[in-house]
Structure formats: C-alpha cells, structure tokens
Amino acid sequence: MGELQPEVNSWALDLPGFGQSPPPRDGNFAPLGHARAAVDFIERHLDGAPVHLFGNSLGGAVAVQVAARRPDLVKTLTLISPALPDVSPNKANVLLPIMAVPGVGEAAMKKSNELPVETRVQSTIDTVFANPSVVTAQRFEESVTEALLRDELTYANDAFLQSLRGLLGTYFDRGRHRPWKLAEMVQAPSLLIYGLQDPLVDARAAHKSTKCFKNAQVMVLPDSAHVSQMEKPEVVAQAWIERFR
C-alpha cells in the first residue's frame, strides 16, 4: 500500500472473522458474505464512490464478487493470486479440502495451535513466500504479535475453517454466479498477478484469467509465490501504475 502513495488513499479491510474484525452476524463466511461486508464499508465510509479494489487469495475471490455484482462501486480491479476454482490440485493445496472436512479441520487447527507461535508464523511465511528471507525481523515480530492476538479470539479458528469451507463450496457451484462466470461479468479494467512459485494458487490459472476477464492485463512473476504484493511490492506497484494511471 505504501508503494502507491500518493497515487491513492488506501484502506485495508480485515474480512469478518479475520484480523480484529468480529465474525459476521449472519454467520455467512462464503465469499459472497464477505463481499457484502466490503460493499457495506464502501457505501458507509466512502459514500459509495467507486474504488480501486485490490484482493489477494480469499480476498481476490471476494473482490470478484464485489466487482461483478456491484460494478458501480469498482473503478479498477487488482487480483493477486485470487482463490478461484482450480482443477489442478498440487500436494500443497490438496490439503485444503481435507482441512475443510468437519472434525478434521478442527483437529488439525487444535494440533497446530499447540506449536510455538514462532513456528506457526515461520511455517506460514515458508508457504506463501518464494524467498522467505525477504521477511525482515521486524515484520516477523509483528506477525508473531498478530498471531498471539488472534489466539485470544475464541472465534478465530472457526472463522478460518468456515471461510475455507465457504470458499471451497464455490468450487462446486455450477450456477450462473459461479466464480469464473462472475469473472466474465466484471466490467472494470483489471490487473491479475500470479506467482510462478505459488504452492496454493496455480499460476497456470493465468491462462484462464485471460479468457474470462474481458479487460484484463495478466502477469506471472517468476520469482514470487502467494503474496506478491508483499514479496515484490515495487513490481506490483509499478504494474498497477502503468496499467491504471
């Protein structure tokens, strides 16, 4: 976000049940439920003015919902490793459906929470960064602090698992509002960025993105993984400026 100053004023939203945001009142953790929260924020706090919408991973799936269903609120759309349905599972993301199985996910989360917080944070970093060494000591300590705060929230594990289940549920949706159909409905100029070394979202999805998003520029970064906005912030910012300025 800092790389785009002063091009834009930025707001980073914690989706319901994530960060320090409370869980949704209606219990809807699916991407559409999260999208309603994003729409509510734009309408309440930004007077419904169209925004440059960014989304990473689950946030990318949520952003597609917003852009397709409320085009009046989205000026441009930027997706980084968006969690859209993937028919080519790998050994890393194949574990996600297993985590979504009722009982199995809860047991796995309980076991994970027994590990030292530093171990859990490092495991996440090793997964989402192609080069974990770019994470500074300060950022690591900030992540540890964030994880400790999350540990104090009784709903944290349930929010993660219910959001995962809601997301995977869209993978089996065959209706007219299934994720890739929504992508075809997006009117806003779009920028999609994938990391070639991403173990969670297959970069080969870039090919489908070029077919489904009508007005999109699609990039694959060879030395990046799941969080290119954190691993390659200068590259992502420059791509955004060149695309939308």
Tag the structure with descriptive keywords.
single chain, 245 residues, alpha/beta, Rossmann fold, four-stranded parallel beta sheet, 11 helices, 48% helix, AB_hydrolase_fold, AB_hydrolase_1
Structure in a nutshell:
The chain has about 240 residues and is an alpha/beta fold.
Topology:
Blueprint: H1 31-45, E1 51-56, H2 58-69, E2 74-80, H3 95-100, H4 104-113, H5 117-128, H6 137-151, H7 156-171, H8 179-185, E3 190-195, H9 205-212, E4 216-221, H10 228-231, H11 233-244
Parallel strand pairs: 1-2, 2-3, 3-4
Helix pairs in contact: 1-2, 2-8, 5-6
Explain how this protein is built.
It holds the Pfam family Abhydrolase_1. This protein is an alpha/beta fold. The chain has one domain (about 1-245): Rossmann fold (3-Layer(aba) Sandwich). Helix content is about 50%, strand content about 10%. It has eleven helices and four strands. It has helices at about 30-45, 60-70, 95-100, 105-115, 115-130, 135-150, 155-170, 180-185, 205-210, 230, 235-245, and strands at about 50-55, 75-80, 190-195, 215-220. Strands 1-2-3-4 form a four-stranded parallel β-sheet, sandwiched between helices. Strand 1, helix 2 and strand 2 (about 75-80) form a beta-alpha-beta unit. Helix 1 (about 30-45) crosses helix 2 (about 60-70), helix 2 (about 60-70) packs across helix 8 (about 180-185) and helix 5 (about 115-130) packs across helix 6 (about 135-150). The radius of gyration is 17 Å and the shape is globular. The mean pLDDT is about 95.
Helix content: 40-55%
Low-confidence stretches: none
Q: Numbering strands along the chain, what is their spatial order in the largest sheet?
A: 1-2-3-4
Task: Give the overall form.
Answer: globular
Number of domains: 1
Characterize the biggest β-sheet: 4 strands, parallel
Radius of gyration: 17 Å
Distance between the termini: 16 Å
Which CATH class is shown? Alpha Beta
